[in-house]
């Protein structure tokens, strides 16, 4: 009879059928043989040869595929047997980027109507919200030929969305050239105040100083630079008469030649475009309300804009855009300007009325009064904004560089 195996501690063996997988537990001695934990890693020479042969066949098949310019016949037959479905057939195309609406915005900013402050805000907001702020290297060409319109529309339309394009340019009809019409926004101001800001900026510049501005405008003669504003108006100098005074309406009328002729046709067409193509046209005298409405209408572009605008650091930058050496013309000269700019004022009051109507819809209070017989003037505060003029070659990026150097 076979004698039962005894373990070192005495008594019967607790594992008569062999040691459990992994060997004996601690304390039972080392006399038991340990079983390997990963026995499946062991393979024979025959298995190794089979794997290498499979790899060789795969490599030769790949080589044959490339040398013959296509897959072997049996693979084509196999695909036909299994069906011609692809990954895209089974799963569909990858999901496209979800764009906000609207994702195409154009700010064809009117000269001397606060756009330098707005552009500065847009640069901050584009980094914060991740939209594509598109600017132009051409700053003072507002009227374009047909080919120039087509080229600019093509460049804007191919920009990565969501984008906001900004430039001094008269209204462009994208649909006329087969493009998707973007949403327009803009800001205007009292026409005479805009004219005065432009008049003195051409001569004396802004915070960079008069001497600096003289260097930047060497072609201006001294008698022109120091021409009295009243003399310019009363003596009917070209700069102070039409068509130079007919300035705001063409930005909304468009590129048609008649848009540059002061009259009812251009005025009515500008009003029509405001109603049909502009999401918002604000007035500079109520800039904070303009920014508030932009934040509500276009939150993916303007969210938080009012808090940035009110920030002391931003206001410090805003102080640097003020035109210097402004003077108010005589009442007689102002009355003449008002008569020469009657179409501009009719458009300004129309836009102002629409803007106040929009504010009331959103619960914003407006102090609406009847239009005066002639415009009321005010001396701009340091926070009022300025921008480059049309007939002066000035780089819009240069003033930003100058600000950040200080």
From TrEMBL:
<dbReference type="GO" id="GO:0034482">
    <property type="term" value="F:chondroitin 2-sulfotransferase activity"/>
</dbReference>
<keyword id="KW-0333">Golgi apparatus</keyword>
<dbReference type="InterPro" id="IPR005331">
    <property type="entry name" value="Sulfotransferase"/>
</dbReference>
<dbReference type="InterPro" id="IPR027417">
    <property type="entry name" value="P-loop_NTPase"/>
</dbReference>
<dbReference type="GO" id="GO:0000139">
    <property type="term" value="C:Golgi membrane"/>
</dbReference>
<feature type="compositionally biased region" description="Acidic residues">
    <location>
        <begin position="385"/>
        <end position="399"/>
    </location>
</feature>
<dbReference type="GO" id="GO:0050651">
    <property type="term" value="P:dermatan sulfate proteoglycan biosynthetic process"/>
</dbReference>
<dbReference type="Pfam" id="PF03567">
    <property type="entry name" value="Sulfotransfer_2"/>
</dbReference>
<dbReference type="GO" id="GO:0050656">
    <property type="term" value="F:3'-phosphoadenosine 5'-phosphosulfate binding"/>
</dbReference>
<keyword id="KW-1133">Transmembrane helix</keyword>
<keyword id="KW-0812">Transmembrane</keyword>
<comment type="similarity">
    <text>Belongs to the sulfotransferase 3 family.</text>
</comment>
<protein>
    <recommendedName>
        <fullName>Uronyl 2-sulfotransferase</fullName>
    </recommendedName>
</protein>
<dbReference type="GO" id="GO:0102142">
    <property type="term" value="F:dermatan 2-sulfotransferase activity"/>
</dbReference>
<feature type="transmembrane region" description="Helical">
    <location>
        <begin position="48"/>
        <end position="67"/>
    </location>
</feature>
<dbReference type="GO" id="GO:0050770">
    <property type="term" value="P:regulation of axonogenesis"/>
</dbReference>
<keyword id="KW-0808">Transferase</keyword>
<keyword id="KW-0472">Membrane</keyword>
<keyword id="KW-0325">Glycoprotein</keyword>
<keyword id="KW-0735">Signal-anchor</keyword>
<feature type="region of interest" description="Disordered">
    <location>
        <begin position="385"/>
        <end position="406"/>
    </location>
</feature>
<dbReference type="InterPro" id="IPR007734">
    <property type="entry name" value="Heparan_SO4_2-O-STrfase"/>
</dbReference>
<dbReference type="GO" id="GO:0030010">
    <property type="term" value="P:establishment of cell polarity"/>
</dbReference>
């Amino acid at each position: 009879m076979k004698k039962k195996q005894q373990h070192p501690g005495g008594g019967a063996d607790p594992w008569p059928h062999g040691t459990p997988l992994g060997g004996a537990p601690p304390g039972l001695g080392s006399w038991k043989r340990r079983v390997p934990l990963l026995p499946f890693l062991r393979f024979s020479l025959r298995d190794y040869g089979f794997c290498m042969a499979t790899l060789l066949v795969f490599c030769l098949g790949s080589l044959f595929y490339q040398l013959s310019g296509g897959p072997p016949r049996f693979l084509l037959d196999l695909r036909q047997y299994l069906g011609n479905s692809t990954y895209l057939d089974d799963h569909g195309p990858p999901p496209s980027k979800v764009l906000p609406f609207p994702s195409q915005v154009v700010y064809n900013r009117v000269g001397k109507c606060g756009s330098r402050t707005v552009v500065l805000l847009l640069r901050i907001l584009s980094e914060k919200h991740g939209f594509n702020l598109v600017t132009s290297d051409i700053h003072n060409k507002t009227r374009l030929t047909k080919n120039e319109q087509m080229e600019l529309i093509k460049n804007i339309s191919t920009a990565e969305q969501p984008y906001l394009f900004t430039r001094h340019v008269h209204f462009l009809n994208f649909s006329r050239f087969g493009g998707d019409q973007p949403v327009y926004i803009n800001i205007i101001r009292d026409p005479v105040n805009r004219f005065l800001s432009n008049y003195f900026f051409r001569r004396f510049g802004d915070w960079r100083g008069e001497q600096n501005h003289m260097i930047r405008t060497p072609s201006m003669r001294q008698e022109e630079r120091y021409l009295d504003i009243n003399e310019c108006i009363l003596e009917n100098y070209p700069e102070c008469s039409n068509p130079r005074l007919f300035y705001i309406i063409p930005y909304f009328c468009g590129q048609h030649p008649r848009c540059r002729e002061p009259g009812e046709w251009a005025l009515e067409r500008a009003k029509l475009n405001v109603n049909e193509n502009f999401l918002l046209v604000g007035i500079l005298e109520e800039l904070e309300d303009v920014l508030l409405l932009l934040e509500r209408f276009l939150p993916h572009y303007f969210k938080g804009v009012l808090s940035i605008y009110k920030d002391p650091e931003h206001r410090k930058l805003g102080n640097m855009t003020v035109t210097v050496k402004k003077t108010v013309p005589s009442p007689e000269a102002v009355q003449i300007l008002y008569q020469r700019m009657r179409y501009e004022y009719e458009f300004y009051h129309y836009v102002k009325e629409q803007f106040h109507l929009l504010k009331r819809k959103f619960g914003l209070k407006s102090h609406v009064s009847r239009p005066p017989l002639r415009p009321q003037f005010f001396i701009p505060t340091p926070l009022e904004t300025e921008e480059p003029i049309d007939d002066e070659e000035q780089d819009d990026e240069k003033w930003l560089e100058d600000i950040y150097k200080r």
